[in-house]
Amino acid sequence: MALDKNQIAQRIAMELKDGMYVNLGIGIPTLVANYVPDHIEIELQSENGMLGIGPFPTEAEVDADLINAGKQTVTLRTGGSYFDSALSFGMIRAGKVDLTVLGAMEVADNGDIANWKVPGKMVKGMGGAMDLVASAKNIIVAMQHTDKAGNSKLLPECTLPITGLKCVKKIVSDLGVFEITDNGFLCVEYAPGVTIEEIKAKTAGRLTISPDVKEMTF
After folding, report:
1. Which residues have a Cβ under 8 Å from the Cβ of 116 and sit 6 or more positions away?
2. Is the pTM of this model over 0.90?
3. Is 25 inside a domain boundary?
């Protein structure tokens, strides 16, 4: 059975390492803040100018002035800070972000990502995604494996406007965990109840199954 959005976020949280500075993109990535392991200390950064973001607030904790880049209300951990957009993007462009977690409409098997525009639909702009994919040391994508029509979103090449080239290192989809290699997508984990045959059928790009592939655990 495919993972839900919270399970995708929970699995990505297992990639976090002590001392990391991490940016969470809009959508599924924002949920990662709820699953940061208790035994590690990280700093969550938002490109609208926050550092030290905590989990989503309870109803009693909601402060309308504290929002992330997706305009969702958030909490601020003790010692957290907020600042202007210029300082935030200075931090991003200087390579101070260790890990960026982004959603995507498409990922190519060479690591290209398209995540900001569908032709013919109104958008406000690329936002911070272009800077993040150009500057972060590591990029993990959180996404659904197929679109609503059942078409693969893991492709030989992106068909939508590109956000960044050869920048994605890993994908956590609702079907499994995939690393980007010279030979395309490498499946290293599969979601509980999902078969390798299903993953192969729903992946349009080059796909290799790791000899050590295992069922995903949380």
Report:
1. 123, 125, 126, 127, 129, 130, 161, 163
2. yes
3. yes
- 135 against 201, higher pLDDT: 201
Question: What end-to-end distance do the CA atoms of the chain give, in Å?
Answer: 15
The one-letter code for the residue type at 188 is: V
Token readout for 203 is: 């992946």
- The domain containing residue 209 runs over which residues? 5-31+93-215
47 included as an active-site residue: yes
Catalytic site residue from 15, 41, 43, 47: 47
pLDDT in tens, 172-214: 999 999 999 999 999 999 999 999 999 999 999 999 999 999 9
User: Quick check: 29 and 53 in contact, CB under 8 A?
Assistant: no
In a domain, 158, yes or no: yes
Q: What is the CATH number of the domain that holds 119?
A: 3.40.1080.10
pLDDT digits (tens, 9 = 90+) for 55-114: 999 999 999 999 988 889 999 999 999 999 899 999 999 999 999 999 999 999 999 999
